Amino acid sequence: MACASCSNGKDGLPKGCKNNGTCGTDSCNKLTVFDWLSNMELPSGAKGFDVVEVRFKNSRKEFFKNTEELSLSIGDVVATEASPGHDVGMVTLTGELVKVQMKKKNEDPYGDHLPKIYRKASQKDIDVWQGVRDREEAVKKRSREIAIRLGLKMKISDVEFQGDASKVIFYYTADERVDFRQLIKEYAYEFKTRIEMKQIGYRQEAARLGGIGSCGRELCCSTWLTDFRSVKTSAARYQQLSLNPQKLAGQCGKLKCCLNYELDSYLDAVKQFPKFEDKIQTQKGFAVCQKVDIFQKKLWYAYENEASNWHELDLDSVLEIIEQQKQGKPAASLEEFKVEPLSDQVDVNYENVVGQDSLTRFDQPKRKKKRKPNKRKPKANPNASNTNTKSKKPSHRKPNRGPKKKTEQKEANTAPSNKPKKPKNKKPRPPKKKDD
Asked: 231 lies in a domain?
């Protein structure tokens, strides 16, 4: 958020506009269209387009006719026509660019069916609007408790109050048809207002609530994506992705919208390659395609009787083999066109290229340290013949190596000893008396 209302509040907590990622003052609004025609002047005598775009909670936007010819600009809070009463929203687009947006959404710019703008919102309208917006979280929690108590298979994803508090809209998702007769009665008794239920899809729910995707960025549907195109599993097959639902599904539970972003590029690249199921003929036999690498333009083929032995070929080599096959002169074998490994062509060392450690340094198990040999004596054999003798504690003295020789005994007797001699019969001195 980048507007002034998002400054820090008390105790260092962010103040914010409490719109769950959608700026309340429209300074950092998601899905806002840049008005690149704002600085262009109309020809003399031409009248400006009198329809404006107004945004309500989250990404809901509608077009209203400015019949009162009010001077409106982006960010103005206005009271608009609703049934019943009036609603309060914020102007997000004015001028000639609104006509472009209406044509994009297949709406008639000059139709009489458009609702009207009553006035600019007064302070009383804004106070009532902010008051009901603060109640939405408590109402959503209570509505979920009632739906669970009634045992309905549905999920209340969001709640939106009308600007004058005369109606509340409950957005829900469900896989099956839901009976609302008892639910609406309890909602009307509990919240004392008119109730309207709107079912939305799982993609629309993710767009309203927002979140962080597996790529680490905000969801595309909640930031800039305005239309939801169907995503098929064939998009993953063309891009050679494993059909793992945990990786291919987004937070909405459906296939990720980003699978369609690069699909056209893959389809253009695949046109250069032969079909995956086509076999190529050689004098050695027929070969079947096992794998395709679109980026490096390489294919792997294996003979029908040697499925485990793959041969790596370039795209040009495969096209050459197919051309020879069409002319009735099949190639001798795949080994003639086999690509040599990179290690045989150029001696390249990929280890630590950019000054980083190896990415697989934690994959190798640690080496076990060699234990030092045990210097202790071996334990006594329990099956020894002498069982009556008591077990003695092992002595730490050096073993007796037998009697010394005579020459060693003489040298030991004649050698001068370095030990200090003890004094003979010396009485200890009495302690000195201290002077009083």
From this structure: yes
The answer to whether the beta carbons of residues 123 and 39 sit under 8 Å apart is no
Q: Is-cis flag, bond preceding 115, omega within 30? A: no
Q: Is residue 227 part of a domain?
A: yes
Q: Kindly report, residue by residue over 288-318, the tens digit of the pLDDT.
A: 888 888 888 888 888 888 888 888 888 888 8
**Domain tally, the chain:** 3
SS (H, E, C) 354-366: CCCCCCCCCCCCC
Q: How far is CA 301 from CA 154, 314, 342, 343, in A?
A: 51, 11, 19, 21
CA distances from 1 to 9, 19, 56, 317 (A): 14, 11, 18, 55
- Give, for 170, the enclosing helix (H) or strand (E): strand 167-173
Please name the residues in contact with 135: beta carbons below 8 A apart, sequence gap of 6 or more.
161
298 and 241 belong to one structural domain: no
Q: Is the per-residue pLDDT at 400 higher than 70? A: no
Q: Does 368 fall in a domain?
A: no
Cα Rg for the chain, rounded, in angstroms?
43
Q: How far, in Å, CA of 332 to CA of 409, rounded?
A: 96
User: How far apart are the two ends of the chain, measured CA to CA in Å?
Assistant: 88
- In tens, the pLDDT along 6-25 reads 545 555 444 555 554 445 44
Question: Which domain does 305 fall in, by range?
Answer: 280-343
Domain boundary among 200, 228, 259: 200
349 backbone φψ class: left, alpha, beta (φ>0; ψ -120 to 50): beta
pTM: 0.61
